[in-house]
Amino acid sequence: MAEQMGLLIDVSKCTGCRGCQVACKQWNNLPATATAFSGSYENPPRIEGNTWTRVKFTEDRQSNGSVRFLFRKTQCMHCTEASCVAVCATGAATRMENGTVVIDQDKCVGCKNCVVACPFGAVGFDPQTGTSRKCRACYERVANNMPPACVKTCPPGALQSGKREDILAAAGERVSQLKAAGKEAYIYGQKELGGTGVIYVLDAPPKVYGLPENPRPATASVTGNWLGVLVGAGILAFAPFKLLFSDKGSDVENSPGTGVDENA
Amino acid sequence: MHEVNWPALIAVYLFMAGVGVAAFYTGVLADIFSNGRYRRLAKYGAYIGVPMIVIGVLMLLFDLGKPMSFWRLLLNFNASSTMSIGVWLLSAFMVLGGLNALTWLAEEKFAGNSGILGAFKNKPGLRRFTGLVGMPVGLLTAGYTGVLLASTSSSLWSSTPYLGLLFLVSATSTGIAALMLVLAWRKEDFAVIQKLARADALVIVFEIIVFSLLLLALGSGAPEAAAVILKGSYSLVFWLGIVACGLVIPLIVEVYNMFSAKLHTGNDFTVPVVASVLILVGGFLLRYVFLFAGQVSL
Ligand code: SF4
Ligand code: SF4
Q1: Sign of CA dihedral B113, B132, B91, B203
Q2: Where are the alpha helices (H) located in chain B, listed in sequence order?
């Protein structure tokens, strides 16, 4: 396996400036969207076909009544067990050799299955292109030894890119630092969904940051569901069909003149 | 919360696909188990099934972001993708069901001996083969409409193993209802309608069991998702439309009808027609509510 790419998001350094959002739009030529004030500086309200990354703002009320303002950059996690790849019927969603998950815009037919399948809500449908689109971890930039646009722009250095193993090591180091300073610290993405390309350093539990604690691939219950279908088909074939229709009951014969015509 | 990615058109598609394949396999199963006594059901099943599936698939294509690129779905097979499996099931069903329907059409009065239809005249082997293969393909297709929803991250759809089964059983009920309606419309043998109503009553009992299993599993595995349909904004449609209209009332009507038939109240088509219409409405609402409620909890 080729070297896996990694992207570190250290939320403890994020100031919520949203420079990454703008850099992403610029590098990927994505239009701005008109939005209305929602009561929070979080904007736009969700990831969409033309918004591939956004900083999620969380107001976490503490037990002493004070409020912590938490920022987390969200985007595709580049999962190893990628739900979007698993459900895509055209083969448009694929995992590249370096672990980057991309949606081939020529192959995508816009069925939106990946949009409803992604455990992180990271894919959006773009009515303009008729396709589903998402963060592609600046695949071409990385291939040319440049950091992704968001990493390049981040003023406080909350983002870092490189080989996944180096990123994991850096995350581990940062967690020890935070813990030494008496703070909570967690790594997210090391094991989740087979290990994700994006690794978070969190200073509050994943749940507080709106991350699923035990994310499952979208196909997790498919085998069970198919089994149910097979069992059900067997039961139905027996009852009612075999039970009722193979009985030599009197219904048909006893209704004079209305018997089913064999040669109908 | 996400916006709705799969709109109402998809609920219509799930519904029509279910009715279509179920009418088809109901007809084939009734025909083979009875050694041909219910052959007419197989014919009507094919006549209902094929157009339903074709219209349903057109809706599916219409909902694609790039409908004209639909052929890309046929260039690929992804075993882990329920949609990919479904594309192939639907394609197989359209070919098998289409050929099967042609063997019936060829024997209708208006069909001549020449032309395309003429070629399908007196082809019992082809009819039997397409029926026997199309029947399991149809059963799987009916289940696939539920498994498709289960292969997502929506907790309502994916946290239990019962959605495919529920859609299969519900589709069977709607397929039987569609057959009853056609028989009533053609003023066919009342005894056959009675037979179908009895079959349907059993299917509804099965459906109620599956529904209960699903709701129990949801209640423990994904209580918030369960609450959306049981207590939230969809609860009224759920209890009135799906449970009362789609399950309980038709079941009562069908059971009542079984006994009243014994009392010889004559061949009154009203009762089975009312039951069938209620079942079809309930079956559609089931898909509609699950489709939308599932996207609320996504
Ligand atoms: S986060 Fe979503 S879009 Fe990204 S690889 Fe995972 S499943 Fe696919
Ligand atoms: S929307 Fe495109 S990328 Fe997503 S599953 Fe469908 S074809 Fe694949």
Answers
A1: positive
A2: 8-33, 39-63, 82-105, 115-119, 124-150, 155-158, 163-185, 190-221, 223-230, 235-236, 249-262, 270-296
pLDDT under 70: residue ranges of chain A: 1, 247-264
Q: Tell me which of 1.20.1630.10, 3.30.1600.10, 1.10.10.10, 3.40.109.10 is the CATH number of domain B8-296.
A: 1.20.1630.10
* Cα→Cα distances A227→A124, A144, A190, Å: 31, 47, 32
Compute, in angstroms, the gap from residue A104 CA to the centroid of ligand 2.
9
More confident position, A257 or B205: B205
Is the domain of A26 the same as that of A62? yes
Mutate to test the interface with A, among B66, B70, B162 (most CBs of A within 10 A): B66
Residue B290 token pair: 């699950």
**pLDDT exceeds 90 at position B277:** yes
Q: Which residues of A touch B298 (CB under 8 A)?
A: 116, 121
The residue among A149, A168, A202 that closes a domain is A202
What pLDDT does residue A257 have?
40
**Ligand 2 contacts CB of residue A95 (under 6 A):** no
Residue A248 is part of which domain span?
A: 223-264
Spatial distance between the Cα atoms of A7 and A99, rounded to a whole number of angstroms: 11
What pLDDT is recorded for position A263? 43
